[in-house]
Design goal:
The complex is a heterodimer of chains A (about 300) and B (about 550). By secondary structure, chain A is mainly α. Chain A contains 13 helices and no strands. The longest helix of chain A is centred in the N-terminal third of the chain and has 24 residues. Chain B has 22 helices and 6 strands. Classes of the chains: A mainly alpha (about 300), B alpha+beta (about 550). The interface between A and B is large, with 67 and 76 residues.
């Protein structure tokens, strides 16, 4: 090969490096070049969002390890013990104002996790004391981990509920660790049933409750979709149930079923229960849901 | 006495005088032609001088001849002056023996080692402008580099990619030199320096994995980050640069690149002489190296832009060490701890003769420190042991393969052991349920995360219902999990995957495996939970 040919090849390869470099330039600087419309995201902005999302994931893991016992699986807190976190007044600045915190919510959370609360702000409502979590103060968490926890806690903002001062625990779940007495329907469920609205309120089954074919079809669907959590006979102790908190409902419990009117039962199957592992099933179609409903109510005989 | 010459009034400077004279010439045709000729000559002189200043002596005509592959224009050969006078070019020899430049003999491995080391120096220096070597800021500054700095991710990917390639290339270089016997005298010290450089490369890379303070490697005290940073960015590369200089000096000035043994030791004098025909560095070898550089640059840029992205795991967490903490190039070291050959023998000795060597053999000080040091010493001693072996049998040293069958066999044996122990080091000896969870729900990666938030249906999925492969990515993954659960050494094993909507745009994914406990105290259930956010793009 002559020198000229070698140089030509080298120049071609060198020029080809413009392809990856140009691609990266478009990705990273698309905003500057005007190659990205205002409602699109550049690759770099997507990455920023991705690492924000990963921080939330890490935060969720850390929350499950360090925070869940006091503040609840869904940030609902434990009555008389530790406050809820998924609450509107924390995110709209009222809480910061209350404790005279001049920074934003983010720094309030960061500081509270890192340095704890050496003095309780509401000893009248909660008995637990927030310990220090930062490695700087003898805790277990690094600065990056506290950042991740803050990102996770801030992600509650979208679904935060109004908390009445510092007392009520509004999330419709049972407190973690609290033992559910058989026969006591969950308080959250009762609340859902009371405030049922259209199109669910007052709905009635299109099938008879003792129709053998419907029961057989209902059993088929139940065994397929529900039994893993609710158990083969609906006792709430299916093999997957142990992983869940709160636990699945005991459908074979007569008292529970009596507290659950048919329209509310249908609503719960169709829409799921927020704050628990019960997902919405309405994609299966009303017909299938009614069959399952009839089958599950057959155990207790509650119409 | 001595009388000072009276000071003459200065006249016009010569250049200006000529200029005015030329100005006067412009009146006539002949004068104009002369001025034009003088101007052309002057311009050529300036251009030629500038070219010589830049190229270190090559004039325009010689540069042209060089680029065309023509012989040099000026006598004596001006190209050799260039290679001698200019700092950068004088580092290269003026000529090589023809056979030593065969690509199939060296594969350019030494050249590419230096190339990748330079990529490391440049990209590493650039990253030092953003990276903050403090335990509190290191992780966050790494994310800033990827998400806020244009070309930041590219620079980091190039550094990661080129570090891995550097290790591969340096190792292959060592292997090539060993197998072709190029470590023999007069290249013994060059080999020793090379082995030290190899160890340095591994050490720098190992420490480099630690700097982002993520959870991919969990060793050491996070407060020592600054020390690792200084070692990685200053001290070790500094020593390395010095040793590369010594290594290269010996190759380029003292003994040159080895010739293929079959030609160097040929009985045919013609072959021996043909191997030693000199090839000038300029322009043939220079042009070939330009191709190599452009080609390697394009390859790593394209890979870094489109294929390979340097991973960044969750923040450092000593309480949650990953299952395999050694980087791939040190897995053999981890594999030493899983040794299936010597350890059983020692255990047998302990049980039958009460000679307990097993405990010391399996200790960190032996496996982690003494064995690697012995391996290093053995590598350093290779050329000296080799020379002693030849002397022992009274043989003349020879690089020919047929004269060093034992050495070559030992080389392949060592390579085989390396591969085997790397395999052993990659094994995670976890209980079956843990291994399944680790396979399908690993930290920071895995098929489940790649499927993505949107395509993970919430609910409790019993794996037994997904026995057959499916076109749906999620269901297909469940069927794969079911197969692994069934294959696992667990009685009546069942698997459940529970996907819960946990927070806004965040799903909680729990894998639960239950089985009938056989041993007393066994729980019969194992769970692993990961979380997946809508935006978190795992690739």
């Amino acid at each position: 090969m002559s020198t000229q040919q070698k140089l030509l090849i080298a120049i071609i390869f060198a020029l080809l490096t413009c392809v990856p470099l140009g691609a990266i330039a478009l990705n990273d600087l698309g905003r500057v070049f005007g190659a990205v419309s205002p409602d699109e995201r550049t690759a770099m902005e997507q990455r920023a969002l991705a690492y924000q999302g990963r921080a939330i994931e890490t935060g969720a893991e850390l929350y499950a390890r360090h925070c869940i016992k006091c503040h609840g699986a869904r940030g609902e807190g434990v009555p008389q013990f530790a406050p809820a976190l998924s609450r509107k007044d924390l995110f709209d600045g009222r809480r910061a104002q209350e404790v005279r915190w001049n920074g934003g919510v983010e720094s309030l959370l960061k500081n509270a996790i890192a340095a704890g609360r050496p003095a309780q702000s509401r000893p009248d409502l909660y008995s637990a004391r927030m310990p220090t979590f930062s490695r700087d103060y003898g805790g277990a968490l690094s600065a990056s981990q506290i950042d991740a926890l803050v990102a996770f806690a801030l992600n509650w903002q979208a679904n935060a509920t109004e908390v009445n001062a510092w007392s009520a625990i509004p999330v419709p779940t049972r407190a973690p660790g609290a033992v559910t007495q058989p026969g006591t329907p969950a308080a959250g469920l009762a609340r859902i049933c009371q405030s049922l609205s259209a199109p669910y309120a007052g709905r009635k089954s299109p099938y008879k409750f003792d129709d053998k074919t419907i029961l057989a079809q209902g059993k088929q669907i139940f065994d397929d979709k529900c039994a893993a959590c609710h158990g083969a006979v609906g006792a709430g102790n299916g093999p997957a149930a142990a992983a869940l908190n709160p636990k699945p409902a005991n459908l074979a419990d007569k008292n529970f079923m009596q507290a659950l009117p048919v329209d509310c039962h249908f609503f719960v199957i169709a829409e799921g229960v927020r704050g628990t592992a019960m997902p919405p099933w309405k994609a299966l179609g009303d017909d299938a849901l009614w069959k399952v409903l009839i089958y599950t109510r057959a155990w207790t005989g509650v119409p | 006495m001595f009388q000072r010459e009276p000071r003459r009034r200065s006249r016009l400077p010569v250049g200006l005088k000529n200029f005015f004279a030329a100005f006067g010439d412009l009146g006539t045709n002949a004068g104009r032609a002369r001025v034009a000729q003088q101007t052309r000559e002057a311009a050529w002189r300036v251009a030629d001088d500038t070219t010589r200043a830049i190229s270190g002596g090559l004039g325009i005509a010689d540069v042209r001849a060089l680029l065309r592959g023509d012989p040099p224009v000026e006598k004596p050969n001006i190209r050799e002056q260039v290679l001698g006078r200019v700092f950068w070019t004088h580092l290269r020899p003026r000529a090589y023996y023809k056979s030593s430049t065969k690509f199939s003999h060296t594969f350019g491995l030494g050249f590419f080692s230096v190339f990748f080391a330079f990529v490391q120096l440049i990209t590493g220096t650039l990253m030092m402008f953003v990276y903050e070597p403090s335990p509190a800021r290191a992780y966050q500054s790494t994310i800033t580099l990827i998400t806020q700095i244009p070309f930041g991710q590219l620079i980091r990917d190039l550094h990661y990619l080129s570090a891995n390639l550097l290790i591969v290339v340096v190792f292959l270089h060592l292997l090539r030199v060993y197998l072709t016997g190029a470590f023999k005298q007069p290249r013994r010290l060059t080999w020793v320096i090379g082995v030290v450089l190899f160890a340095l490369t591994l050490a720098i890379a190992f420490i480099g994995y630690r700097l982002p303070m993520d959870n991919a490697v969990a060793w050491g005290n996070p407060d020592d980050l600054l020390r690792y940073y200084l070692l990685h960015t200053g001290i070790l590369p500094g020593i390395g640069l010095f040793l590369v200089g010594a290594h290269y000096f010996r190759v380029s000035r003292l003994h040159g690149i080895s010739l293929p043994a079959s030609e160097e030791e040929s009985s045919n004098e013609e072959v021996r002489e043909r191997a030693r025909v000199r090839v000038n560095y300029l322009p043939d070898l220079w042009a070939r190296e330009l191709i190599w550089i452009a080609c390697a640059l394009l390859t790593i840029l394209a890979l870094a832009a489109f294929v390979v992205h340097a991973p960044l795991a969750a923040p450092f967490d000593l309480t949650r060490a990953p299952m395999a903490s050694a980087p791939w190039f040190l897995l053999w070291w981890q594999g030493l701890l899983n040794d299936p050959v010597v350890l059983p023998v020692l255990l047998w000795l302990r049980d039958t003769l009460w000679i307990d060597l097993a405990q010391f053999y399996n200790s960190a000080i032996w496996q982690g420190l003494i064995v690697p040091m012995l391996i290093g010493l053995l590598l350093l001693a290779v050329p000296y042991l080799d020379a002693w072996w030849d002397k022992f049998w009274g043989r003349a040293p020879s690089r020919l393969g047929r004269n060093r069958k034992l050495g070559i066999a030992l080389g392949w044996l060592a390579l085989g052991l390396l591969v085997w122990f790397t395999y052993l080091g990659a094994q995670t000896f976890a209980p079956p349920a843990v291994a399944i969870a680790q396979e399908f729900l690993p930290d920071n990666s895995g098929e489940m995360r790649r499927i993505g938030y949107a395509d993970l249906p919430t609910g409790s999925h019993e794996l037994a219902k997904f026995a057959a492969p499916s076109a749906d990515r999620f269901e297909n993954l469940l069927s794969k999990m079911q197969i692994r659960v069934q294959q696992a050494d667990l009685a009546d094993a069942k698997g459940f995957l529970i996907v819960e909507a946990w927070q806004a745009n965040l799903k909680k994914i729990t894998l639960r495996i239950t089985w009938t406990p056989t041993a007393p105290g066994e729980s019969g259930a194992f769970e692993k939970t990961i979380y997946l956010h809508r935006d978190s793009m795992y690739e």
